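Hey L., structure's done. Input below.
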Amino acid sequence: MAGSIEFDPLAVENVGVTLAVELLEQPLSKMPPETPFSGAGVYALYYSGDHEVYSTLRTLDDGRFKYPIYIGKAAGESAKQGFSPNGSGERKLFGRIVEHSRSIAAVENLELDDFRCRYLVLNDAYIALAESVMIRLFRPPWNGMSFGSKVVGKNRMTGQTGLWDALHPGRGGRPAGSERADVAAQLIARRSVELSRDLADPTLRRMYERVMKFV
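Output:
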């Protein structure tokens, strides 16, 4: 058709959609997955429990496991050493999900049985893009709350108790009753509401609409 724009399958937008769809089409798994596996990649965590802070997210999701509560990545050995055509031989991705499972199991007000995950083994060349696209499209409530921080319970920049640990105390002996728990609850509520609204950026909105056709 005259005036049509030529489709570029390697455009960042199109590669990003492909990666997101592939992750979301992976089967749901318990946390941690029952069978260890090798490789690096990306993953999505889902929550179906009854903690009151997540009531809006739970209603929106309606048991379909469409809206991740957290998106993360686990890079392989080549991530800081340049491109490698080979995948990781170590259990990078599996190990990361195991770490998160231990964090959730350690806290006082969450149940690990209420969580599921999806994961996708990838070459390091695609991992950062896949994570970035998923975070921008789905705006997961736990991203940016120090849930995945290696410094348990602490904000890396300020040294304050991380928002996730303030709301869900118990990991690494973190004391209960932090005044930042209210801040965390408000942030989660706001992000959950935002999920029901269209993305402002037209490119992201178009990508989201394409991804959701497969979910």
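DSSP finds seven helices and four strands in the chain. The beta strands are 29-30, 41-47, 70-74, 115-121.

-- N.
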